[in-house]
Design brief:
The structure holds two protein chains of two kinds. Chain A is an all-alpha fold. Chain A has a single domain, classed as Orthogonal Bundle (Ammonium transporter fold). Chain A contains 16 helices and no strands. By secondary structure, chain B is mainly α. The termini of chain B are far apart. The C terminus of chain B is likely disordered. At the A-B interface, helix 5 and helix 6 of A face helix 8 of B.
C-alpha cells in the first residue's frame, strides 16, 4: 500500500498522515507557483508540466505492471515528483528534458528504492540527472527574457560571475516576486514564504529542516559572499536565485528523507545548506541545490547514527 | 583421461550466471565503473581479465596448493603483474593503439583484481587443474559478457556512438558515461539477473542431475600427456610438501616435549 512508507517514516508523528493527505498538501502548494509561472511564461508552462507529470505517472504505472504490483494514482507521489521537476526547469526547455527527468526519477530512483518511501528524493535526483546530461538546456533562460529584470541572465549567473546588483524599491519587488530569468516556478520568494506559512500550519516539525537549511545558507552568504555587494544584498540574492527557496520548502521537507528526531532534522538541513552553498561557490553548475539534497539524503543514515540520540550513541550508552 | 569433473555447461551456469562475479558477487567493479565507457575498452579489459584469470587459476591449481595462504595471495598478484605489464607494453608499442588515460590506469590494476584472488583462493587451489580452468574460463566469460553489455550501453546511450562510429542519435545521456550511470546500469542488470535466477537454478539442477550419466569427451593424446604431466608434477610436489610438513611437526613436537 502506498501509505505504509508514510506510516513507517512518520512514526514519531501522531496521528499518522496518509500519502493522500501529505502529497495533497504539497500538490496544493505547488499549484500556486504553477499559476504564477503561467502568468510569467504563458501556456508553455502547462505543456512542460503536463509532459513531466504524464511521463512520471506512466513510468510508475508501467514499472508497477512489470513488477506485478497494483498502481494507485491516489498515492499522488508521481504527480508530485513530475510537477516538482517541471517547476525547477526553465519554461523554454525542450520537452524531452522533463520527460527524461521524470522517467529517471521514477524508474531509477523511486521504484527501485522502495516507492513512496525511497530514501533519495526522486525529484531532486531527476533534476540532477538532466542537469548533468543537458546542462545547456537546463540552465538557459531565454523564453520571454525581454520582460525580465536582467534579461536572459539569472541571479545565479550574476552571482557566479562575482557581480551583484544594487537592491532598491524598484527592483526588490521583481527579485522577490520572481520576475527574473530562472527556473519557471521557483523564483518567487514571496510565494515560497506563503507556502512555508501553510506548511507551518500543516506540518510544523518538517520546517525544522527548512530552518536549518536556510540558516546555513544565510550564514554562508554573509560570511563568504560571492559578490562585492553588501551582506544583506548577498543574502537576498543568494536566497532568491535558482531553486534554493523552493528546495527548502518542497525538497528538504520530503517525508521519506527527513530524520525522525528534531535535532537531527535541523542538522540534516544545515548539512544540505552547507553542501549547496559550497557547491555554488566552487562547483560547475549554476544551481546545485538538487545535488546537495541527493548527497544529504545519502549521508542521512550516517548522520543519524553518529549524532546524540542516534543508534551508535545509544549502543555506546548501553555498553557503558 | 576420463574423470568425473563438472562439465563446462554446469560450471558456466554456476560461475558465470548464477554467481556472476560482477552482478552477484559485486567484485571487479572498479574497471567497469571507471574505465569502461565504450565497447573498445570493454573488449580490451575483458580479454586481459580472462587471460589473467585463466593463467593465474591454472598455475594456482597446479603449483600452489601447499604454499601458505599469505604467500599464495602475493603470488597471484605477482603472476598477474608479470602477465599484464608486458602485455600493456606490447599493445602500446607494437599495435600503436591509442589507449586512453583511464585504460592505462585501470589495465595494470586488473592484476590486483579481486575476481582473480577470490577464484584462485576459493576454487583453484582446492580443485584439480581442469576444474580450475573451467571455473576461470566461466568466470571470465561471465564478467566479459557484463562488461560488453555495460560498455555498449554506455557508449550508445552516453556518447551516441558504437565502437567509435557515430550513430547520429538525437539525444545522448552524458550521465551514463559517468560512474554513477554505470552503477545504475549495473543495478538494473543485477535486478534482471535476479528475476531470471529461479529459472536458471532449475536449469542448473537439471544439468547437475544429468551429469553422472554423461561422460567427459575424450582428450587428445597431447592434452592427456599435458594433463598427466601437470598432475604428476603436482603429486610429486604434494608428496614433498607433505614430508616437509611432517618433519616440521616432528621438530616442533620435539621442542615442545623438551620444554
Amino acid at each position: 500500500m502506498p501509505d505504509s512508507a508514510t506510516k513507517r517514516t512518520e512514526g514519531a508523528q501522531k496521528p499518522y498522515v496518509t500519502a493522500l493527505q501529505l502529497f495533497g498538501d504539497y500538490l496544493l502548494m505547488l499549484l500556486v507557483p504553477t499559476v504564477l509561472a503561467v502568468y510569467y511564461y504563458g501556456t508553455r508552462v502547462l505543456a512542460v508540466a503536463g509532459v513531466s507529470v504524464g511521463v512520471a505517472v506512466l513510468t510508475e504505472a508501467i514499472f508497477s505492471a512489470v513488477l506485478g504490483r497494483s498502481y494507485y494514482l491516489r498515492d499522488l507521489t508521481s504527480l508530485y515528483t513530475g510537477l516538482c521537476i517541471a517547476l525547477m526547469l526553465p519554461a523554454g526547455v525542450p520537452f524531452y528534458v522533463p520527460a527524461l527527468a521524470a522517467a529517471f526519477a521514477v524508474a531509477a530512483v523511486k521504484m527501485p528504492l522502495g516507492g513512496s518511501g525511497a530514501p533519495i528524493m526522486p525529484a531532486a535526483a531527476g533534476f540532477a540527472f538532466v542537469a548533468v546530461c543537458f546542462r545547456a538546456e537546463v540552465f538557459t533562460y531565454t523564453l520571454r527574457a525581454e520582460q525580465k529584470l536582467l534579461g536572459a541572465q539569472s541571479l545565479g549567473a550574476l552571482l557566479g560571475g562575482g557581480n551583484a546588483m544594487r537592491l532598491n524599491a524598484a527592483n526588490l519587488l521583481d527579485v522577490l516576486g520572481g520576475n527574473v530569468a530562472g527556473p519557471m516556478g521557483t523564483g518567487c520568494g514571496l510565494l515560497m514564504l506563503a507556502c512555508g506559512v501553510y506548511l507551518l500550519m500543516r506540518r510544523p516539525r518538517a520546517l525544522l529542516a527548512t530552518a536549518g537549511f536556510l540558516g546555513a545558507c544565510m550564514l554562508w552568504a554573509a560570511i563568504l559572499p560571492r559578490s562585492n555587494g553588501g551582506v544583506l544584498t548577498n543574502i537576498v540574492l543568494e536566497l532568491c536565485s535558482g531553486s534554493l527557496l523552493f528546495a527548502s520548502i518542497f525538497l528538504v521537507t520530503d517525508h521519506a528523507t527527513l530524520p525522525a528526531a528534531r535535532l537531527h532534522r535541523v542538522i540534516y538541513g544545515v548539512l544540505c545548506g552547507v553542501l549547496c552553498m559550497a557547491m555554488r561557490r566552487s562547483g560547475v553548475f549554476e544551481e546545485p541545490v538538487c545535488f546537495a539534497i541527493v548527497l544529504g539524503n545519502a549521508l542521512r543514515p550516517v548522520l543519524e547514527s553518529i549524532l546524540p540520540g542516534g543508534e551508535r550513541t545509544q549502543r555506546k550508552e548501553a555498553r557503558a | 583421461m576420463k574423470e568425473q569433473t563438472p562439465g563446462f555447461r554446469v560450471s558456466f551456469l554456476k560461475s558465470a550466471v548464477l554467481s556472476n562475479p560482477v552482478l552477484v558477487q559485486m567484485v571487479g567493479l572498479c574497471p567497469a565503473v571507471a574505465a569502461m565507457t565504450n565497447v573498445r575498452s570493454a573488449v580490451l579489459i575483458s580479454a586481459v581479465l580472462c587471460l589473467d584469470l585463466i593463467v593465474t587459476c591454472v598455475l594456482a591449481s597446479a603449483l600452489m596448493k601447499r604454499i601458505p595462504r599469505a604467500v599464495r595471495v602475493a603470488l597471484y598478484l605477482g603472476i598477474g603483474l608479470a602477465l599484464i605489464c608486458p602485455l600493456l607494453y606490447f599493445i602500446e608499442t607494437y599495435t600503436l593503439m591509442n589507449l586512453g588515460l583511464s585504460i592505462k590506469v585501470y589495465l595494470p590494476l586488473l592484476a590486483v583484481n579481486a575476481v582473480t584472488a577470490l577464484h584462485c583462493e576459493k576454487v583453484a587451489v582446492k580443485n584439480p587443474v581442469r576444474t580450475a580452468f573451467s571455473d576461470a574460463a566461466a568466470v571470465g566469460l561471465g564478467a566479459s559478457i557484463v562488461f560488453l553489455i555495460i560498455g555498449t550501453l554506455r557508449e550508445v546511450l552516453g556518447s551516441g556512438a558504437f565502437a567509435g562510429i557515430d550513430l547520429d542519435l538525437p539525444i545522448s545521456l552524458k550521465g551514463l558515461s559517468l560512474p554513477f550511470g554505470c552503477f545504475i546500469l549495473l543495478g538494473f542488470l543485477a535486478a534482471a539477473l535476479q528475476a531470471f535466477s529461479p529459472y536458471l537454478r532449475q536449469a542448473q539442477t537439471r544439468e547437475t542431475d544429468a551429469q553422472p550419466a554423461q561422460t567427459q569427451p575424450a582428450q587428445t593424446d597431447a592434452q592427456d600427456d599435458l594433463w598427466s604431466d601437470i598432475l604428476e608434477a603436482e603429486a610429486v610436489s604434494n608428496e614433498r610438501l607433505a614430508a616437509l610438513d611432517e618433519f616440521t611437526e616432528r621438530l616442533i613436537g620435539g621442542e615442545e616435549d623438551a620444554q
